[in-house]
Each structure stands twice: as C-alpha cells, then as structure tokens.
Known about the structure:
Helices cover 41% and strands 20% of the residues. The protein is of the alpha/beta class and 338 residues long.
Amino acid sequence: MTLHFRTPDSSYDIELGQGILARAGSFFDLERKVLVVTEEGVPCQYARTLLEQCPQGFVLVLPGGEGNKTLAGVERILSTLLDNAFTRADAIVAVGGGVVGDMAGFAASCYMRGIDYYNVPTTLLSQVDSSVGGKTGVNLCGVKNAVGSFRQPAGVLIDTLTLDTLDPRLYAEGLAELFKMAATCDAGLFRRLETAESLRPADPELLASALRIKIGIVEQDPSEKGLRAVLNFGHTIGHAIEAAAASGPAPLYHGEAVAVGMMYASEGQARERLGALLRRAGLPTEDDFSVGELARFASRDKKRKGALTKVVKVSEIGSYRFEELDDRALVNLISARK
Length: 338
C-alpha cells in the first residue's frame, strides 16, 4: 500500500508491503550515484538487494547502536560522498534502524547544502516512528539528538519481511512506539492491540494505522512548533532513563526506556491498560534510578523552554494533554511514580 505525506514544502510516498525491497528501483530514483548507508547487525542482503538496482552504487557500513550516533559517524558519510565525487544530483539510501536513518538524513541535509535521501527502515521502531517526519541528527555530550536538522526524505520503503530477522527484544521496543501512537491519539487502535491474538508478526494494517497518525500530526506541524510534541509521550522521562542506563551494566533500548517513561506520564485506568499491554509485549514498566538522577537528565531535555519542561500526559486512552513543569513539578512527577 502507498501512504502519502504532503506539506507545503515537501511531499513523498511511503511504500508499505511484503517483499518490496527487490522493487526499490520502481519507487526511488536510483539512476544516479547512490550511497547505501547501513549498519553492523543489519543483514547484508538488504544492502546488496539495493545495490543490484543501482548502476552507480556504493555502500558504507557504520557501527550500530545509539552510542555510535555521533558527529564522527556523520563525518564518515560525508567523507565517503566527497571521496566518490557525489554531487547535488545524487542520493543516499539509509538501510537499517533509526540510528543509521538519523545519521544518513543529517548527512544528506548538510552535503553540498542538501541532497536527496531515501529511508528503508528495517526495525519495527524505525518503521512506525523515525523513518517518517524528517527529524535527523546525532547525540552530543550525552544529550540525545542535540545536533540535527529537519530534512524530509524523498521517499520511504517499508518491507515488512525485514522484521522476520529482528530479535524479540528489538521487535518489542518498536511496539512501544506503536502503543504510544494509539494511547495518545486512537482509542480504537489501542483496543485492537489489546485484543490482538498475537503482536508478532506485525499486522501491516496496524503499522499503517500508526503511520497515518504520525503523518497527520507531522503534516500539521512539520517543524515541531506545537502539536507534534504529542509524539514525545513517554520521551521526557524515557530519554532520562535511557541516558541513566547508558553508563550502567544493562543499557536500555530507546523503546524500552520510552515504555517506562509512558508509565510516569500516564494516570488512572489509562496507566493500568498501558502497563498491561507493555508487560504483554515483554517491555519494562519500572526502573531503579533515583529521583535526582532522572530529574537531572530530564531537565536537559532539548525541548525545554526556559525553566519549563513540556510533558505529554495521558489520563484516558486516545487523548492527551500538555503540561509545562518547572523543576520542582518535574521532581514531584517522578517521585509520585516511585
């Protein structure tokens, strides 16, 4: 199926289906120099399948993981483009999860002041979230996505067969973002998830429903001036948990940290239902970090304005509200869930 993204400044299609990676050339303009950027851990066959469709194809394999989402990684992409005499008429294709997609997109926004890039997300997390919306960037000095840009892709291809190679933990972290979309914006979708016989394999219709939510929000607010902040449900405390865990013996995946973060930001029956769904998916719902530690990381949130941190709260499934919290209120929020 084809989903459409349209704003006054950008438009592209999101192709969703099984086995469509082998037909990428019919969706993307690959008749030019193309750098396929992938990461360690992604089956090499995916990059090879794309290269077979590129008359002038090159490949760059980057180290995987959030810890490698750095300016140094972006510099490697830019150097490869320069060494191979890429011009503004050429393109990048990102193949992998959100880390490689963010770095490739950021590099595309910078090289020669902007070249095309396509996104081929191969994890559930990137398929339902980071592949659409145009946020690109890297981490800096322990702050997640501190450096980046808004750069919409020229196209997105989601081949659901790539999920067959995903290990259970990585698959589960993607479900956290799917649950987020439903909890904030679509009570019917949340009920479908609650009553689904199984959460794996992924139902393409469920993925499409989540993508339609994100597309609708980003089309209204492409550069995150207001409404788009709803997509941060669970992320304020979630990013703090992710940062706190990064230096410990058991780092958390992004989606796992967001799962716990949603528990901090939900209330009443919504919290009970969300907790039950997270546990069913094998996701964590609590953490062992101190209030002070989480408050310290949360206060560095890049969306903070002055002395206030905007938090998305859910008290009823399918709806949300924004609250702007000062440091004391943020500490109180965290303390109330301990």
